[in-house]
UniProtKB/TrEMBL annotation:
Residues 161-192 are annotated as: Disordered. It comes from Psylliodes chrysocephalus. Residues 173-189 have a biased composition (Basic residues). SMART domains: ZnF_CDGSH (SM00704). This is Iron-binding zinc finger CDGSH type domain-containing protein. InterPro entries: CISD, FeS-contain_CDGSH-typ, MitoNEET_CISD.
């Protein structure tokens, strides 16, 4: 098939080539054809090329299914489909069968022009902010004149939450905040994930026989001991503290990376590469 030959030529052309911009793909695609032959014809399209075909008032058939009732043929059973100039659609359920008219009710007697359909989108789809950030990192290894392309990519704005949504309320306001109902129209925050660090803390000579609460959510300001932050309803924290007791009064190394298998005591997991690499998500 021609399409297989074209794809093979293009893949061989762009192999081991430096690709910095989408236009590089277009240039190599045109040059992929063998010398002495006209280059491949390339047509660039953008978001305004895509139309919205969901308007039932402009289409002639609401569906191309060759059946209406239960157990009737479905779309994936169509073997051949034919579109006629007058807008009629016929289909074959077998390669050796006859073309049959679609049983669906015709909703429009005329065929609408493509120009009659509105555009599906008014602007290009925005990429996520995190992806835009990652693309910005490419500017360190690509030519300088390619940088403006990545700067001008449409992207979602960084989600900056107000301090009152994530900060710990004062003791006098906790009772009031816990009674707030999400039905009042205020947007609820997402559950907070545990915060990990690659450090280890010491509890200096805790009293033997006394019980302590080890912070597991990572939001306590008295790390590694729980300060009750997980009880604030607005933060929607699901990670509860771990209760533990020491036998005698001496220094204990308490895990602060939350990855130990000997909770709550440190087992050296914070020295692993995975935890060290997680330093970028340490709470500020």
């Amino acid at each position: 098939m021609e399409v297989d030959s074209v794809h093979s030529c293009i893949e061989n052309k762009i192999k081991n080539k430096a690709i910095h911009l989408p236009s590089d793909y277009g240039r190599y695609t045109k040059e992929a054809r063998v010398r002495g032959v006209e280059p491949y014809e390339l047509k660039e399209i953008s978001y305004n090329f895509v139309k919205d075909y969901a308007l039932i008032s402009l289409v002639k058939y609401p569906s191309i299914r060759p059946g209406k009732k239960t157990n009737d043929p479905t779309v994936n059973e169509i073997k051949v489909i034919k579109y006629t100039p007058d807008g009629t659609i016929q289909a074959k359920l077998s390669f050796y069968g006859e073309f049959l008219d679609l049983p669906g009710r015709i909703t429009n007697s005329t065929v609408a022009n493509l120009s009659d359909f509105p555009q599906l989108r008014k602007e290009p789809i925005k990429i996520k902010y995190t992806k835009w950030q990652h693309l910005q990192q490419l500017k360190e290894v690509i030519p300088l004149d390619c940088g403006p392309y990545y700067d001008n990519l449409l992207h979602e704005e960084k989600a900056i939450k107000e301090n009152k949504e994530t900060s710990v309320p004062e003791k006098g306001n906790r009772k009031k905040n816990n009674k707030q109902s999400p039905s009042k129209g205020k947007k609820r925050t997402q559950p907070l994930q545990p915060v990990f660090t690659n450090n280890t803390k010491i509890i200096n000579k805790p009293k033997g026989g006394k019980k302590y609460s080890w912070c597991l959510c990572g939001r306590s300001k008295k790390q590694p001991i729980c300060d009750g932050t997980h009880k604030i309803a607005q933060l929607k924290i699901t990670h509860k503290p771990v209760r533990f007791e020491v036998e005698e009064s001496k220094e204990y190394w308490i895990c602060n990376c939350k990855q130990t298998k000997n909770r709550p005591f440190c087992d050296g997991t914070h020295k692993s590469k995975e935890v060290q690499d997680a330093s970028s998500i340490i709470r500020q």
